[in-house]
């Protein structure tokens, strides 16, 4: 099956960053798997926008996550730090299996349950100065510091360093300048290398010492330990920040849904899947490439091409979710792909859900008549195709 091909990269249009869903709808209507231009260098990739096709692609072993293998055969002027370019997200089994064996126990249901009182204390500390009538930026004052505090606490990152580490992580998702991305990767990689080396050289019982021991027992070497720490920092807060911000905005734009959660906050855990589906914090999943010729959704994909799976598009596939542009808290949205699917499904999902639940519960119970401080159309969105999130979310507390 041959699909019509866009003439320009549809994922770099300024309108895409503000609202990707019309673009996704148009692409999916043409063909749920199609070849698109990427960047301005004459390169192409295959973009997957349909839900069944995305689920299939997530589990197809012929789509490799080993980016080092892909770029080893292609000239590139990129200069990513190895801690960023060779994480668990950029590997296949058996290397991926070793990394995941260490990462998964950090986020078990029991571990997250034990963390819930601490999550609540962090949220209380962040919102203690909030008062009715005050304007706050939900992103800067809650959605960003909550997850970065949690993941840095898990890793034992000193508190004075956390804001700078978050800023470097933020820069990693810049869609406008690869030099900014590469430079940020080295700042993160160098910082975490020093942190891991210090923990390896000095006895201790802190969180990072525990992670180092887990890595050694899991047959991860020093560089792999650094890369796992980097992944936990970057993936552990960036998407959760957007999860919280997108969810609050969706509820404020659907006041009947916000009011329903205000009247019964115990509905919040069940509403999280629909909020994740409605405006996914992961718009396009991280890089894959075809290692041999294959076919997905009836579209042939030759060997050697990048393949981009778009959970943001798949979550709005009307064949899977009727009336997908409607926020429906009664919908069974458990089939959403915002955390991925298969062996690369996000291991930190339980922690992200707990953080979002606590943040939303605080907002709807303490400030049940909160409203946007500016029109929704005036909000600024991050310019990145990988994640979807707000730069700021100014609110009037009430």
TrEMBL record:
Gene3D superfamilies hit by this protein: Cytochrome P450
Keyword Oxidoreductase belongs to the record: yes
Record Pfam families: p450
Keywords assigned by UniProt, alphabetized: Heme, Iron, Metal-binding, Monooxygenase, Oxidoreductase
Domain of life: Bacteria
Protein family per UniProt: Belongs to the cytochrome P450 family.
The protein, known as: Cytochrome P450
Native source species: Streptomyces microflavus
């Amino acid at each position: 099956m041959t699909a019509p091909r866009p003439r320009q990269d549809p994922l770099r249009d300024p309108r895409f960053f503000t609202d990707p869903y019309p673009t996704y709808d148009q692409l999916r209507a043409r063909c749920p798997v199609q070849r698109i231009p990427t960047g301005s260098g004459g390169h192409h990739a295959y973009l997957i926008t349909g839900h069944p096709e995305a689920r299939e692609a997530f589990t197809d072993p012929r789509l490799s996550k080993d980016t080092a293998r892909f770029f080893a055969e292609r000239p590139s002027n990129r200069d990513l730090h190895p801690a960023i370019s060779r994480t668990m997200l950029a590997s296949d089994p058996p290397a991926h299996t070793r990394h995941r064996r260490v990462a998964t126990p950090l986020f078990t249901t029991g571990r997250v349950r034990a963390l819930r009182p601490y999550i609540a204390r962090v949220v209380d500390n962040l919102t203690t100065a909030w008062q009715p009538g005050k304007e706050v930026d939900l992103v800067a004052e809650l959605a960003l510091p909550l997850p970065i505090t949690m993941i840095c606490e898990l890793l034992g990152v000193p508190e004075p360093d956390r804001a700078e580490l978050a800023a470097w992580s933020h820069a990693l998702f810049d869609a406008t300048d690869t030099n900014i991305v590469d430079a940020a990767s080295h700042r993160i990689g160098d910082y975490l290398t020093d942190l891991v080396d210090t923990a390896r050289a000095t006895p201790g019982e802190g969180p990072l010492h525990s992670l180092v021991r887990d890595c050694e027992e899991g047959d991860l070497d020093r560089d792999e330990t650094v890369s796992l720490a980097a992944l936990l920092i970057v993936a552990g807060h960036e998407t959760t920040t957007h999860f919280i911000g997108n969810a609050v905005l969706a509820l404020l734009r659907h006041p009947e849904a916000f009011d329903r959660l205000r009247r019964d906050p115990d509905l919040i855990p069940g509403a999280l899947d629909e909020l994740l589906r409605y405006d996914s914090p992961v718009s396009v999943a991280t890089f894959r490439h075809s290692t041999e010729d294959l076919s997905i959704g009836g579209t042939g994909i030759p060997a050697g091409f990048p393949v981009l799976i778009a959970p943001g598009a798949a979550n709005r596939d009307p064949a899977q979710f009727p009336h997908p542009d409607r926020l429906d808290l009664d919908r069974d949205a458990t089939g959403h792909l915002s955390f991925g699917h298969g062996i690369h499904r996000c291991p930190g999902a339980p922690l992200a859900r707990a953080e979002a639940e606590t943040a939303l519960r605080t907002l709807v119970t303490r400030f049940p008549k909160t409203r946007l401080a500016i029109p929704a159309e005036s909000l600024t969105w991050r310019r990145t195709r990988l994640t979807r999130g707000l730069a700021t979310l100014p609110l009037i507390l009430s």
